[in-house]
Write a structure and sequence with these properties.
17 helices; 435 residues; two-stranded antiparallel sheet; 14 strands; alpha+beta; twelve-stranded mixed beta sheet
Length: 435
């Protein structure tokens, strides 16, 4: 068929009228949330229970209405180290503190990319990408760069604000400002003027707006706490970097993002790198592209060593938020809408923009079957304790294989061959290919 004719419409309508199942499903969907009807409780129940390998963590955090899951996951991973050193049972690092500098760095990077690519056509792919503006989503590489530059602070030192927990309005307004600034900077360059004095003024304007929305980050602070033995401690005049060096002291350079992107334009067993509007100026995103089996083996090695894994996946594909289950068999939207299939092989799904890593979490456990293969994974989410099992989720192995994309692994778990791959010249990719 080329056009929708009334003949086609009549045929389709007649087929539907004879389909009792379809009409019953319509009656159910007319008054019920699709997410509730799509969930299969019996299947989801099969994924629940203890895990043969499990890492204890200190509780679930809540990113609220923001896209900071990647930052929460990174800080929750480091929180475990800090809590051990502080000898406390409950502790959080300030997400608002690093998020403040994340937005400031992203704004600076957008303007710097405007200057660098000022001669690019405005309707070209490069400038269209830059002018999408910044988001508060991100990846491990960005978190590591921020921590190395700015350090960390306890959450009690720099707590959340309403705006840090509800970021959409602020980002919308600042992105409008960035586009106005981009217009001005491009005109200055086209007129042969130095854009950098004006860029500094633009950034000062954004810094002020961020202080109003999120608070002014501390340069030094005092920190007092009681440990689990009720002993009082107090540190005076700490800086964010000295706090990190004393109470976290994790060498972030030893952690490598490992991805599985089996696309035709990506080489497996090879590093990839790209510069995004989400990065700091002068910093790139780097990852090692490995087969799925090797990525999973590295995750299991790290979990067995007692350390959680920063992990990125597509959380929107087949998820039951209330029940805390990610699994194709447990969430069946296609059957609910007539029985079609939307499944694409992983690499093709990425190429056709059907799926992408949308969410970052901590892997805190895995269940291994009698043969030693994983059949389900435990996840510490950042959606608060109201979602899932007191904030924890379970992911089936089939979901992990199809919709799991990135894990951050310490180099000590790599094989000699994988370590050698890190020394190879990376494949440089265009940032808009990752969108």
């Amino acid at each position: 068929m080329k056009d929708i004719t009334f003949s086609f419409l009549n045929t389709w309508a007649e087929v539907y009228d004879r389909d009792n199942t379809a009409r019953t499903l319509h009656s159910a969907l007319a008054k019920t949330d699709m997410a509730d009807l799509a969930y299969i409780p019996a299947r989801g129940a099969q994924l629940k229970g203890a895990f043969s390998v499990e890492v204890k963590t200190r509780g679930v955090t809540a990113q609220m209405k923001s896209g900071r899951c990647w930052l929460f996951a990174a800080l929750n991973m480091l929180r475990e180290v800090a809590a051990d050193r502080l000898k406390v049972d409950s502790f959080e690092l300030s997400q608002n503190y690093l998020s403040f500098y994340d937005k400031l760095e992203k704004a600076n990077n957008v303007l710097e990319m405007v200057i660098t690519h000022a001669e690019e056509p405005l309707n070209g792919q490069c400038m269209r990408y830059i002018l999408t503006g910044m988001v508060d989503g991100g990846y491990w590489s960005e978190a590591a760069d921020l921590i190395r530059k700015y350090g960390v602070v306890p959450k009690q030192v720099f707590p959340e604000t309403y705006q840090s927990e509800h970021t959409a309005r602020f980002l919308s307004i600042i992105n409008r400002l960035l586009r106005k600034d981009a217009y001005e900077l491009r005109r200055m360059i086209q007129q042969g003027k130095d854009p950098y004095p004006r860029k500094a003024e633009m950034m000062a304007e954004i810094y002020r707006a961020q202080c109003i929305a999120f608070g002014k980050p501390p340069e030094t602070f005092d920190f007092a706490w009681r440990d689990k033995d009720n002993q009082y401690h107090c540190e005076k005049a700490l800086t964010p970097l000295t706090f990190y060096e004393k109470y976290v002291a994790v060498d972030l350079s030893q952690y490598v993002p490992v991805i599985n992107e089996p696309r035709d334009d990506r080489k497996l067993h090879a590093p990839v790198v790209f510069h995004s509007i989400e990065n700091m100026t002068g910093k790139d995103m780097y990852a090692l592209n490995l087969p799925q089996e090797e990525l999973e083996d590295l995750c299991i090695r790290q979990l067995k060593s007692g350390e959680p894994v920063w992990f990125a996946c597509d959380a929107g594909a087949y998820g039951a938020r209330k029940e805390g289950v990610w699994d194709q068999e447990s969430v069946q939207y296609e059957k609910l809408l007539g029985g079609f299939s939307v499944g694409l092989p992983k690499g093709i799904g990425l190429e056709y923009h059907d799926t992408v890593a949308t969410h970052a979490v901590l892997l805190t456990g895995v269940n291994l079957d009698v043969s030693g293969y994983p059949d389900r994974w435990k996840i510490e989410n950042s959606w608060g304790k109201e979602a899932g099992d007191n904030g924890y989720f379970v992911c089936s192995e089939t979901y992990f294989r199809e919709y799991g994309y990135e894990a951050v692994i310490h180099k000590k778990h790599f094989s000699k061959e994988q370590l050698a791959m890190l020394t190879e010249e990376p494949v440089r990719i265009r940032p808009w290919d990752e969108e």
